[in-house]
Design brief:
The strands form four sheets. Strands 1, 2, 3, 4, 5, 6 and 17 form a seven-stranded mixed β-sheet that branches. Strands 7-14-8-9-10 form a five-stranded parallel β-sheet. Strands 11-12-13 form a three-stranded antiparallel β-sheet, with no helix packed on it. It has two domains: 169 residues, FAD/NAD(P)-binding domain, CATH 3.50.50.60; 97 residues, FAD/NAD(P)-binding domain (3-Layer(bba) Sandwich), CATH 3.50.50. It is 24% helix and 29% strand. It binds flavin-adenine dinucleotide.
Amino acid sequence: MFDIAVIGAGPAGYSAAINARKRGKTVVVIGQNTGWLTRAESIENYPGMPGVSGAQMLEAMSAQALALGAQLRPGVVHQIIPMGESFAMSLGADFIEAQRVILCTGARQPRLLPGEEKLLGRGVSYCGTCDGMLYRGKRVAVVAQGPEAVNEANFLAGLCQSVSYFGRADDALDSRIEVRSEKVERILGDAHASGLCAGGEEMPFDGVFIFREAMALSSLIAGVETDGAFIRVDRQMRTSLPGVFAAGDCTGLPLQVAKAVGEGCIAALAAAQELG
Ligand SMILES: Cc1cc2nc3c(=O)[nH]c(=O)nc-3n(C[C@H](O)[C@H](O)[C@H](O)COP(=O)(O)OP(=O)(O)OC[C@H]3O[C@@H](n4cnc5c(N)ncnc54)[C@H](O)[C@@H]3O)c2cc1C
């Protein structure tokens, strides 16, 4: 069990981790260094490091957090489950437990496909490792919208009768996988997913796996109040759910590194204070 779990490995997440470690708390950062900031060629408005690239900045923040003793777990958290005094976070087939959670998930919320939410757990899955066995010998579709998709699709290729991969072709994909270029429009099915519609064509599948870099807030954690697209927080970065904090772009404008690291710091200190 960790004292604090930070969801999202961006500037807000690393700042939260650094500050929580400086308060002596055990911290896990869940995410990968592939966030928004890596797209910034040169950052001119962050104090003390003019002209640094986003990728360099993220690397430096990550190295600092790890050197202070934070743990980094690559992957996407699919769900955060409140368990009374603590929280369980599902990460692939694993669960990570922590006493406090800091959401640092950035501003980019994925748009769910029509039918997806209704059929989640009933033919729609976010985790090949967890649910792959249910589709042994069956035909599945993979909707690839994140870096985990290739590995997960390769895993499914070893189990399933066929895997149709809706995403960009990748040399690392197993040769048994069929790559499809059509854009997926919706998931088909009533009580159970029966396929998907892509490029205007209805295609039957026994299961549909969707892999993304992030989760919609409503699937990630139930009951967190929002203001439009952003998570509502108070000045201590507390959300409406006790024990859950939020920091960075996910809490609102301006979408800037300086604001993200400031809020990450505040959230970590507030969480550490609650833990005593
Ligand atoms: C091209 C570009 C240029 C920019 N230039 C500047 C600039 O010059 N100056 C400036 O101040 N800002 C700039 N920004 C904005 C800056 O990148 C953001 O404000 C900053 O990265 C926000 O940090 P964050 O930690 O809140 O979110 P992010 O950096 O978006 O990090 C959030 C991370 O959480 C991950 N995540 C989300 N959900 C989950 C989940 N369920 N499980 C695990 N991980 C999850 C995401 O994949 C992502 O890696 C720029 C942005 C872009 C795109």
